[in-house]
Each structure stands twice: as C-alpha cells, then as structure tokens.
User: Which sequence fits this backbone?
C-alpha cells in the first residue's frame, strides 16, 4: 500500500529545533495505528508527544510489534535544489501472525528510545481514506514510502 504524504507532528518540529529529536544520530521505527487512533484528534487536551501518548496502536497480540519495526535503508539526500535535504527509507512489511488485524488506517514513524518518554513521534501517514477492514492471518501489508521520500527540509 502506497503511503500518502507524511505529516510531521508539530511537537516533532519543536523537538527537532531544540535538539531533543536528532535526525542525524538516531534510529527510527514504524508502528501501525487503527482508525480509532487519536492521531488526528485536534480536540485533544495535550498534543501527541511520544509513542505512549498514541492510542489505537496495533498491538503485539495481533502479530505486529507494539514497539514497531525498525526502518531500514535510511538515507539523507539532496532534494530538488541544493537547499533541500530529503529523508527516505525502505518500504516496510507487516504480517498478521497470531490473528487478523482490523481497522488499520495509519503508519507512524517514531524515534527509538530506551524509555517510553524518549520514543518521540516524528510523523504519520494516512494509508487509506477509510480503513483496512481486516488483514487475515498470514497476509502482509507493505507500507510503500511516498516517491518523494518521507520528509523534506528546506
């Protein structure tokens, strides 16, 4: 499934600016979230900050690691002009191993961290306009990164 445009969390922009979230020396992971997630809830009292503030995350009981899967092939390249830097990564494959996974709608990229508070959210993509009703046991979902990469800094 081709990922739509990746949206950087507002809090992530702040963390990048103050150095809390370093894009150069870190490892990122991706997890899946359901249509019941609080990703797009603007009425939330607190903005999303880290992985534990994310609700509706697909759990390990469904065969999807709750700590997500490590991104591979992370690369920084020059964009359309010398003033642009692009971040891209390889596609990721998730497999429903222990039971069917229902209502998948989002992919979320977050910083790997030893503590839950260190697992800062970076960005998310809406994978489908409605939701994937069910990913049956043994079936896979490939999150295909957008052709323009995950994000561009200008």
Assistant:
């Amino acid at each position: 499934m081709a990922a739509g445009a990746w949206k950087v969390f507002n809090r992530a922009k702040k963390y990048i600016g103050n150095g809390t979230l370093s894009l150069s020396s870190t490892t990122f992971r991706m997890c899946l979230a359901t249509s019941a997630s609080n990703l797009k809830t603007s009425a939330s009292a607190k903005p999303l900050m880290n992985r534990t503030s994310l609700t509706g995350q697909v759990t390990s009981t469904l065969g999807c690691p709750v700590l997500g899967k490590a991104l591979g092939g992370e690369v920084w390249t020059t964009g359309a002009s010398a003033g642009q830097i692009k971040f891209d990564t390889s596609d990721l494959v998730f497999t429903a191993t222990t039971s069917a996974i229902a209502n998948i709608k989002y992919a979320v990229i977050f910083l790997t961290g030893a503590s839950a508070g260190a697992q800062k959210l970076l960005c998310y993509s809406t994978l489908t306009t409605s939701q994937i009703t069910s990913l049956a046991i043994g079936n896979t979902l490939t999150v295909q990164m957008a052709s323009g990469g995950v994000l561009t800094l200008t």
